[in-house]
């Protein structure tokens, strides 16, 4: 599986952008504050239905705008998967796979496996077992629906 393209509208510092990805390797280079991490966060949204950086969805909408859209096309098992995330102020987050809206966001978890490790994750090494357990729960839940459902309970 790989991400073929990413479209952002009013997401953080991106008014509108479309990015095409290489199937092998992609690099983001730029000055501090230009939005490299925001691109990674958008991919995190498409995989796990949430930001890796900000738990309040509406705070990821560009300042002065009412909504944002994150959309990606993934090549998976020889087919394209169109994943859509729409966030509007005062509304429920909308998440779709191939134009079909999910009833529960947990239905999406595991479709696009993703593990993100950042400098903020030094607690995985230096911290206590609780942080490591939380990280591992997130990884395992992407591969086991039963495990995910037990975590939700």
Describe this structure in words.
- The protein is of the alpha+beta class and 153 residues long.
- It is built from 4 helices and 6 strands.
- It has helices spanning 36-48, 123-126, 129-141, 145-152; strands at residues 2-11, 14-20, 67-76, 79-88, 94-97, 100-101.
- The protein has a 6-stranded antiparallel sheet, covered by helices on one side.
- Helix 3 (129-141) crosses helix 4 (145-152).
Blueprint (SSEs and pairs):
Layout: E1 2-11, E2 14-20, H1 36-48, E3 67-76, E4 79-88, E5 94-97, E6 100-101, H2 123-126, H3 129-141, H4 145-152
Helix pairs in contact: 3-4
- CATH level 1 name of the largest domain: Alpha Beta
Shape: globular
Q: Tell me which CATH architecture of the largest domain applies here.
A: 3-Layer(aba) Sandwich
Separation, N- and C-terminal Cα atoms: 30 Å
Q: Could you name the CATH topology of the largest domain?
A: Rossmann fold
Can you tag this structure with a few keywords?
153 residues; alpha+beta; Rossmann fold; 2 domains; six-stranded antiparallel beta sheet; 4 helices; 6 strands
Summarize the model shown.
With 153 residues, the chain is α+β, with helices and mostly antiparallel strands.
